[in-house]
Amino acid sequence: MATLTIFSIITKFLGFAFRLYLSRILPTSVLGMYTIAASVCLVLETIVGAGIPLVISRYTATNIVKNNKSKSYSIVSAGLIWCLSLSIIIISIVLLCNNLFNFIFTDKDTYIILLSMLPTIFFTALYTPFKGYLWGEERYFAVSFIELMEQVIRIISCIMFFVFFKNISIILPAGLGLSIACALSSIIGIIIFFCVGGKLSNPHGYIKQVFTTTAPLTATRVASSFMTPLINIILPFSLIAIGYSNSQAMSEIGLALGMTLPLLFVPSAVTMSLGMALIPKLATLKQENNNYALCNQINSSITFTLYSSILFVPLFFGLGNEVCTFLYGNMQAGIYLERFAWLIIPMGLSQISTSILNSLGAEKSSFKYFLISSSVIIVLVATLPRIAGISALFIALGIGNMLTFALSIIKINKITGRKGTYVRKCAAMTIISIIVGYFTNLVYNVLIFAFPNMIALLLCSAISVITLFVMLMCFGLIDFELINNIAQKLKSNRIKMK
Question: What angle, rounded to 10 degrees, do the helices at 312-328 and 423-447 form?
Answer without folding.
Answer: 50
